[in-house]
Each structure stands twice: as C-alpha cells, then as structure tokens.
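FORM 12-B: Structure-to-Sequence Request
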C-alpha cells in the first residue's frame, strides 16, 4: 500500500466494508430480514466515509482547496444524498421502508425464464414462502398450473426484486454497487490528487444481479405436490 493510501487507511477500510456488504446482500437476497439488515449496514458504512476522509486529511494545508470539494460533490450526489438521509431516518425512527415484487414461471436452464407472469411477493416473506403459495394456487387453479407450471423439459423459477420507494426502477443490488463505485470514484480522485494510484472499481467479483434475483425450484417437487405424479415414471403417486 502506498504512503498516499496510508493517509486514507480508515476510509479505504470502510470502503472495503461496503464491498463486503454487497456480497451479504447477494447471499441473503431471497430472505427478507437478511437482505434488509445487509442493506441497512451498507448504508451505515457508506455514509460514514465522507466524515472519515475529512478526519484523515483535514490537517493537510491543501485540504480546503484540493480535498474538500470532492467530499462536497460526493454529498451532493443524488443517490448518496438519499441514502444518507435514509441512514438518519434509520438511526432516529427505525426500520427501512422497502418494496418487494416478483414473478414466477418456468425455465429450461441458465436461470432465464421460458415463460413467467407477475406474482406478488410481500416484503415480509421469503421467496420460498411465496413459492409455497404459488404451489397451493396451482393445485387449486388448473388454468394457472397449465399456464405457469413446468412440463417434462422445464422447472419452476421465481424472480424477485427489492427496491426502495424513491428508486423503484433500481434493484437493491444496483443501488449498492452504484454506491460503492461512487465512493470509489471519489476516493480515487482524492488519491490521484495526492499523487497515488487510483482504485479498481470494476467489482470483478460481482455476481450478475440478473441471476441473483432468480431462484429455481424442483421439477420433481412441483409434479409431486401439485399434480400428484411421479415425474420419473409419469404415474400417479399412491396416497
């Protein structure tokens, strides 16, 4: 680590922490408490970085003219500003307000739906719980089962999306990644200003948000629970 990076050691450590929270969001994406706690933690870590930068560099002679403008621009960034406001809300009033939506259908591989339709997934339920509701609905409604249920070449797939009300078109993961990259760009600008090597903000370890949002389910289980059929033999299951 260069001497310039040493001057921002705490800021860079917190930036790496934001990176870690991105992967926690990925890991917990289909579980409401886990994904909400992970996103809360990312917001908290991200909001602290501008103040840590100030603390680490404020005694430099060039801080006011060369460093502080970068921090000001970061705080004015629309997404970062909103998340900072959200963090203050969480500290003083409690839970993060989130929206959850989804769709269910079938796939034949590569986690891309062959056919799908909107299916409500409540913010308080896991994707598995929503899928169980879908199984019950298909068992009661043969038209629904015929339209969205699997055949012998496909299996069920659920697609979920989490977002905050102010950015309904941006998924949690997209917001998290954009926040990390915005912070990385600010830190890189400051590091470059100080004569150091800029950061890598490509996030090459990132899992594709498209695939994280999808969860596949068992063809065998669907045929057994909904149709009462052994998928291997095509014979009815004896009760």
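FORM 12-B RESPONSE
SEQUENCE OUT:
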């Amino acid at each position: 680590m260069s001497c310039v990076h040493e001057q921002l050691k705490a800021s860079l450590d917190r930036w790496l922490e934001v990176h870690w929270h991105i992967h926690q969001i990925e890991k917990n994406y289909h579980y409401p408490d886990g994904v909400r706690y992970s996103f809360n933690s990312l917001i908290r870590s991200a909001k602290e970085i501008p103040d840590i930068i100030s603390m680490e560099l404020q005694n430099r002679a060039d801080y006011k003219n060369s460093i502080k403008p970068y921090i000001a621009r970061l705080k004015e960034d629309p997404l970062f500003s909103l998340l900072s406001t959200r963090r203050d809300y969480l500290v003083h009033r409690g839970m993060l307000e989130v929206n959850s939506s989804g769709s269910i259908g079938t796939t034949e591989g590569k986690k891309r739906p062959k056919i799908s339709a909107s299916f409500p997934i409540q913010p308080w339920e896991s994707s598995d719980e929503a899928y169980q509701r879908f199984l019950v609905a298909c068992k009661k409604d043969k038209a629904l089962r015929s339209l969205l249920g699997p055949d012998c070449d496909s299996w069920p797939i659920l697609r979920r999306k989490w977002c905050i009300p102010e950015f309904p078109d941006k998924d949690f993961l997209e917001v998290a990644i954009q926040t990390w990259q915005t912070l990385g760009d600010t830190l890189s600008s400051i590091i470059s200003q100080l004569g150091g090597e800029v950061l890598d903000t490509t996030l090459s370890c990132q899992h594709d948000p498209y695939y994280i949002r999808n969860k596949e389910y068992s063809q065998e289980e669907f045929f057994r629970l909904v149709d009462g059929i052994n998928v291997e033999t095509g014979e009815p299951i004896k009760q």
